[in-house]
Each structure stands twice: as structure tokens, then as C-alpha cells.
Amino acid sequence: MVFRLITKLIPILLSVFVLVCSGSTVAQEALLWFSEGRPNLQAFDAVQILRTAQLDGLEPDDYDAAALDLGISSSARGAALPAAAIAQLDSVLSAAMQRYLSDLHNGRLDPKQAQQLFTAPALRYFDVATYLNNAVISGELKAAVRRAAPQMPQYESLRKALVQYHGLVGHSAWLSELAQPIEKKVEPGQFYAGIDLLVHRLIATRDLPPGTIAPEVYEGVLIDGVRAFQERHGLPPDGILGNSTFQQLNMTPADRVRQIELTMERLRWTPVLQGPRVIVVNIPEFVLRAYDMHEGGQHAVTEMRIIVGRALDTRTPVFNEDMRFIEFSPYWNVPRSITRSEIIPRLRRDPDYFQRQGFEFVSTRGEVISGLSGESLDALQRGELRIRQRPGPTNALGDIKFIFPNDQNIFLHHTPAPELFDRYRRDFSHGCIRIENPVALARFVLHDDPEWSEERIREAMRRGKSRTIRLDQPVPVLIAYSTAVVKNDKVYFFSDIYGHDNLLDRALSQHIRGIPY
Predict the structure, then answer these.
(1) Within this chain, do residues 320 and 423 fall inside the same structural domain, yes or no?
(2) pLDDT tens digit string along 331-373?
(3) Biggest alpha carbon–alpha carbon distance for the chain
(4) Which of 21-30, 82-91, 92-101 has the lowest mean pLDDT?
């Protein structure tokens, strides 16, 4: 450890030696962190902020925190350093704090470095040097650091959760792995040799109350604890200890720490959503929430289950755009990729499918062809015709479509197959997002228009005649990817269905560390 600190200090000391030998001097009033040759209180605050960077999911080593701590502490004791040495140490501490504030505010990576199809908004200009200078001069460094972090309730909740899971790293409940029985699962009433360790672990994760006594067989309050754990990890809360539950139970606190850190990094990329109402979709959670923004905070008005793109081949992208239109009783203009891979082969096998599903062809001139023939299928194959589905009970978009124009043609819509919302893992779509309760979302979006009552919304959805309305006030829509979420003071973890966490973790592991001198 001492060797590492000395290694970190060598560039500083070399720079100081050069400055002293050259006779360079620096005006004292240009220094931020020193007064009369000694570190000021703000310097000690800065070092402490860097030493505890892990509280925000950052790495103290990225800011040479330990070396700077040693340098500042040493300069506070014994003989005063030469002016040139003080100036160099002051400069290095400023560089470290600027990098820390930039990482805290904007994130350590450009999202594109994580190789994700993430359309990030243009970042607001953050003059980190001026921000830091003003914070130190005003004596409000600690408060300024907190203001630089993402100003959203979820970020602060995750910050508290990170402290909780840091505290579990090395906990005795994870000294060994929970063994899975030969039968592959444990059901209520059965004997399980790992019950003592299971109880110990569920107490640590707060899914069982402290002091819970392990039963002789798998029963009673222990089943309730397992159900609570399953619910927090996106699993069916059936109380059965099966493969998926064992897999989640054996994730270590260090694994969870990293999951929270990755989510916090993504929140730094996330724009602060403005406007009276916003809609947030969280892909791994399979949930949409609509928020009212008033009295300086976000208040969830409605929450619903969703279906997102298949993990294998049609993933829903992550981006944010403004919702500008609602289409009642929509047509489904079948995308070219689906036409070629699914619709044409199906129609060649089963021509009656065309009429059953309410399809029709549209020419490049806008002419509608309501009958199926070999010639029309060939023209469809060549791209001379396109195919669409008329409004109706079998329409793939259901009876309403919420449009936020984007270059990937993603939108929200209802579905004629609502039974799929009962699944716990819901990645079934071609990329667009199916919503469970379209009436509630329409009422939320049209809140400021008294003419659009619930009855009128339902009537427009049932009419069977397509009608598109433009929203007077666009509504921001954020499609996000968070595998760690805090709800009602409980931490929920969800599977990394698209592998985005793995990609981000690898990108961060290749991130250049340390401050260039």
C-alpha cells in the first residue's frame, strides 16, 4: 500500500523538483486549497470526498485519492513546503476534483463507449472549473458536490442502497454457496439441508426479520421470506426454491454493489426530464410509470406492466423523445423486416390468414388492394406493395397507439393478447412496447384537455375508424435500462436481459484511471 502511494506521489514530487530548480513561483491568491502555506479546511473536505467516491459508485483510485490524502496530510505537518511545491499540489488536487465532478455529473463514459444503441441527449454545458472555483470560494464544497450529482429521487435512493450492500460485502451469510438439492427444487414442507444458511442470508437481505429461527423443514415464515426475495428479484413469488431462485440467492453482495453502480452510471447519462408530465419505461423491470412533475418533485400517477422487444433479436432501444400524437383505432403498417420473415411465408402456407387478420395491400401510389393473389404476394416480395392491418379486434397494435417520432420507429400500443402481461418475463415484441392499461395512459397524456373523458377515449378506441390527434403539449418519454430500482425503501434487482450491464461493466473496466500530471 505504501509503495503504491509513493508511486502515485512520484509525478507530483518530480514536478515540484523541476519547479523549485527553475525558480518558478506562484501567487498565493491563485491557490484554492492552501492559505498561508497550509491546506485549508476545504482541502481536507476535498480529499475526504475523493476518498469516499465509492458512495456514488465511483472509484477513489480514479482520482488518486489516497496519494492526495497523504500529500495534503503531510503538508499540514512539519515545515511548510516551498511555494512551488504547494502550487503543484494545489493544481493536482484541483484536477482530481474537476474530474470527479465531471464524472459525478455526466458519467465516466460516453454511452457509445458501452456499445449500446443509446441515443443520448446533448449534455448541458458544465463548466466544471468555474463550478469548483465558486464552490470553494463560497465555502460550500460539500453542498456543491451533492448538487452536481443527478437530481432525481431514484439516484439518491440507490446511493443509500449502495451503502447497505457495501456493508454486506464479506458478510458471513455468503462465506459458502447455497447448495441446490439433487431434486433441483425445494417445495413447502420438504427438508432442505441449507435452511440455516438460507435464513441467515434472508435476514441479511432484509427479507426476513432479525432473530428469525430456522425451522426444521421448509415452511412458515421462511416461505414468506423467500416470496419476498423472489418479488424483489423479478421472479414469480411462488415460494418454491428452484433454479432461478437459487441463482439469485447465490449472487454475492459484491455482485449487487456492481449492479447498483452500473445503474447509477446510467442515471448520470439520463436527462432531467422537464415538463408537467413525463413517462418512463424501464426495460428490465417490464414496467411503465407516468409522473406528474409538481412542487419540485416527481409523483407517480400511474404504473403498468409492459411487454418489450425480444432479447434474442428484436431488442427495444434506449432513448428519449417527446410524445406528440395518439392514434385511435390504428392501422398496423407492417415493417418490411416482419413482412419478409413472417407475413409472406405465412400467407403462402395459409392464404386465408390474409382475410382472418384483416390485411390489405397498399401500392406506392396509395391505392388499397383488399384481395390476395399470387401476383400481389410477388409484388409484396419485390417491395412494390406494402401490407397493413386494418383497425379491428385482431389488429396487432390493439386499439390505440402512442407516437413519439424517432428514427427507430418505436412506439407504445395496446395488444389483442393481454394474457401475456401475466408472465413475469415479458420480452415478446418486435421492439415496440405493449402497454397493459392504455386508457389510463391516454387519460394521463390528455389530462389538460377536458373534452377527452374516459368515456370518449374508450369510444374512440372502439370505433374501428382510424383517427390521429396531435397533443397540445408534447410529453417526454424516456426508455431506460435499470436493473436496480428502489421502491418503497426496498431494493429490487432485475435480470440483465439484453446484456447491457455486462457491456457497460467491461467498458468501465477499460476506463483510464488516475489523473494525468
Answers:
(1) yes
(2) 999 999 899 999 999 999 999 999 999 999 999 889 999 999 9
(3) 95
(4) 21-30
Question: Computed from CA positions of residues 364, 367, 370, 371, in that sequence, does the dihedral angle turn out positive or negative?
Answer: negative
> CATH number for the domain including 396?
2.40.440.10
Domain hosting residue 36, numbered range: 2-151
Do 312 and 234 belong to one domain? no
- pLDDT-derived band at 214 (thresholds 50, 70, 90) equals very high
The number of folded domains in the chain is: 3
CB 121 within 8 Å of CB 111: no
Percent of the chain past pLDDT 90, that is, above it, reads: 78
412: helix, strand or coil: strand
**CA gap 261, 316 in Å, rounded:** 23
> Same domain, yes or no, for 229 and 355?
no
Give, in order, the Cα–Cα distances in Å from 377 to each of 208, 349, 359, 383, 456. 61, 12, 12, 10, 39
Task: Render pLDDT for 34-59 as a digit per residue (tens, 0 to 9).
Answer: 998 899 999 999 999 999 999 999 99
**Interatomic CA distance for residues 89 and 127, integer angstroms:** 22
Half-sphere exposure of 4 (CA within 13 A, CB side): 7
Are 237 and 245 within 8 A, CB to CB?
no
Listed as own residue / partner, the contacts of 203-206 with beta carbons closer than 8 Å and 24 or more positions apart are 203/173, 204/168, 204/171, 204/173, 205/168, 205/229, 206/490
